[in-house]
């Protein structure tokens, strides 16, 4: 005998209301947007949220990703800053629908280990790039090794950086480095104002490569290292590798993901 089920409305998971944690930069426009969105959609603690919405610019997005790396919660950025390469357009309406339709990109950061001249050890993670920069009036002198093999005995320059695909349109691009497709398993090693070898731009390296910079004449030619926004002065050597054990989940509106932005950037 067939018995009909009760008239119960079933909602697909993507149609259910998401718990959102709203985070904002210190900028007034970002704080105002957060207040309006919290009033409209409510607010959850990041540890209880289905998604984190970051309101600000790319710098705040990187800050949010670093702070949320202990959670497996995707981050959806809305631009209340300047460039907003990692952000979506800001709209208050239809946020639940946008989150349900969003496409996810997963990126791995760079893990940096460094030793300064006093013998102090430093560690940091970088989503965009790790950069070495001269900290005095004279050019830096760097020795570059890849996977334990010396590749360049001396690079005289203002600095050098190692960039992820996600960060390849940031500082790396300003230093005339290549834009990398987001799904590519490569890193960009880019020189900054290279003097010797003259006009050397850098190299493309496998994502699994271990890159080491040794600072030559560190006392006379001091160098600072920066992993995204975290910096350490007077370094003696720096080692960098991709960290596959850490994944950052970033949400984008359909058709506006990192892959499309990386391609579009090359035709502007």
* CATH structural class of the largest domain: Mainly Beta
Helix residue percentage: 10-25%
Query: Which percent range describes the beta-strand content?
Result: 35-45%
H-E order:
EHEHEHEEEEEEEHEEEEEEEH
Q: What overall form do the CA principal axes indicate?
A: elongated
Distance between the termini: 67 Å
User: How would you classify the helix and strand content by structural class?
Assistant: alpha+beta
What is the radius of gyration computed over CA atoms, rounded to a whole number of angstroms? 22 Å
Largest sheet: 6 strands, antiparallel
* Widest sheet, order of strands: 6-5-16-13-8-9
Question: What can be said about this structure in brief?
Answer:
With 268 residues, the protein is of the alpha+beta class.
Explain this structure to me?
The chain has 268 residues and is α+β, with helices and mostly antiparallel strands. It folds into two domains: 14-107 and 247-265, 3-Layer(aba) Sandwich (Rossmann fold), CATH 3.40.50; 110-242, Probable inorganic polyphosphate/atp-NAD kinase, domain 2 (Tumour Suppressor Smad4), CATH 2.60.200.30. Helix content is 16%, strand content 37%. It is built from five helices and 17 strands. The strands form three sheets. A six-stranded antiparallel sheet has the order 6-5-16-13-8-9, with no helix packed on it. A six-stranded antiparallel sheet has the order 12-11-10-7-14-15, with no helix packed on it. The protein is elongated, with a radius of gyration of 22 Å. The termini are far apart. Mean pLDDT is 90; it is low at 1-15.
